[in-house]
Amino acid sequence: MNLFCYTATATVQAALGGASDSVSVDMSNTYLEWAKDNFALNKLDTRLHRVVRDDCFRWLETANAEFDLIFMDPPTFSNSKKMRDTLDVQRDHPRLVELAMARLAPGGTLVFSNNQRRFKLDEALSEHYVVEDITGRSFDPDFQRRTNLHHVFLLRHKAP
After folding, report:
1. How far apart are CA 158 and CA 153, in angstroms?
2. pLDDT, tens digit only, all 160 positions of the chain
C-alpha cells in the first residue's frame, strides 16, 4: 500500500520488484492520472495495482485489508478542501501511524517518511511498535551534508 502516493513511483518499484498487488491512495486526480500513466508505461496490470482517490485518513479508517508493506510519505502540511481537516505531519503523524499499523499484517513493515526539517517522531510510538530510524542510510552521498532534508522510519509490530 502506498499512501499519499503522488505519482505512485514507489508502487511501480514495488510491483516491478515482485509485489503481486497493491493499492495507491491520493486525493489528487492529476497525481492519480500520472500514476496510471506510470503503471501503463511499466506494463502493470491495473486490476492488480489499483489507484484510489481518497483522503488517506478516511481510507485507512474504512479499509479492511491487510498489507505486508506500507509506504507512507505525507506532505508536511495540507489544507486541501478535499480533506475534513488540515494535515500537519508533526501534529498528525501519531494518528496516521496508528491507522496504518492497524492495516499492517503481522511481520509486515511500515515505511514512514516525511520532509519536515524539524520533525520529531512521537516517542509514544516506540512503546507500541518496533521503530527503526533509517534516515542516515537514506541519503545519497551528494546530500550527506544536509541530513535534515527528510526523515525515514521503519515500524513493525512488536512480537506477542
Report:
1. 15
2. 999 999 999 999 999 999 999 999 999 999 999 999 999 999 999 999 999 999 999 999 999 999 999 999 998 766 666 666 778 899 999 999 999 999 999 999 999 999 989 999 999 999 999 999 999 888 777 766 666 678 999 999 999 8
SS3 78: strand
Q: Is 66 left (phi over 0), alpha (psi -120 to 50) or beta?
A: beta
Output phi, psi for 156, to 5 deg: -135, 160
Closest by alpha carbon to 63, among 72, 54, 76, 71? 54
Helix (H, G, I), strand (E, B) or coil at 156: strand
Strand pairing report for 67-72 and 104-114: parallel
- Domains along the chain with CATH numbers: 2-157 (3.40.50.150)
Place of cell 520488484: 17
Residues paired with residue 24 on neighbouring β-strands, in sequence order: 2, 51
Closest residue by Cα to residue 24 from 62, 57, 61, 56:
56
The radius of gyration of the chain's CA atoms, rounded to the nearest angstrom, is: 15
Nearest in space to 4 (alpha carbons), one of 39, 28, 21 = 28
